[in-house]
Write a structure and sequence with these properties.
Blueprint: H1 2-24, E1 27-34, E2 53-55, E3 67-70, E4 73-75, H2 84-87, E5 107-110, E6 114-133, E7 140-145, E8 151-156, E9 173-190, E10 197-205, H3 212-233
Antiparallel strand pairs: 1-9, 2-10, 3-6, 4-5, 5-10, 6-9, 6-10, 7-8, 7-9
Helix pairs in contact: 1-3
Bound molecules: calcium ion (4 copies).
Length: 234
Amino acid sequence: MKTHFCRLARVLFVLTIILPSSIQAATLGFGPTPYLSSADRPAGIFCESCPFVLENFEDETYADSGIAISGGRILKPFSVSGLDNFVTDSVDADDGTIDGSGNAGHSWFFAGSSVTITFDNPAKAAGLVWTDGDMASTNVILSAYDSDLNLLLSLDAGDLADDFYTGETAEDSFLGMLSDTGIAQLTIANTGGGSGIEIDHIQYQTCPECIPEPGTLVLACLALVTCLTWLRRV
Ligand SMILES: [Ca+2]
Ligand SMILES: [Ca+2]
Ligand SMILES: [Ca+2]
Ligand SMILES: [Ca+2]
């Protein structure tokens, strides 16, 4: 019996060294999941105890959000004249009412095939809401990169578009990444090229303690090793 405990303890000890490091090095993708307000962000990606940055473009600037965005511009509500009248596709709740329309809020639009968000400080967890895009059949891809611009993970969200572009919100979807490596950039793209991407609610956290699960696993494994070692002695 003591021999079995001894072997098991050795295995668990090795796992405490190897398994948590492999988990911490992993990058996990979240979504696509329906998103009509910030209450719809999925569980498991962000920490309650860590400061949280959310850019919803409602104040018509993102200068204070610690991000840079390549390509595109902020779209204003329908009350402003011009193209923005009908294509603005904000997260639904940003105009004060969840009513199936994001046409009265603010969003970010680029008339091309990809948008890149660069974080001033690498994020532990980051996400955004895809609100509209090219109506041709094309998949939406979210990719995360580290500070050396090495690809961490690409998430294929499929063809999200409802083939309307006048602010409908049932298609709006959260996409995000959680990575212990640190996310320096997020890129959202249409696989087939296409002529438009619209996003909103860029959100992130930078706290290094933002992944509690591996730490919990380490403690659990160490407790098991301690327990089994004690049993071996009795
Ligand atoms: Ca609305
Ligand atoms: Ca908005
Ligand atoms: Ca939409
Ligand atoms: Ca649409």
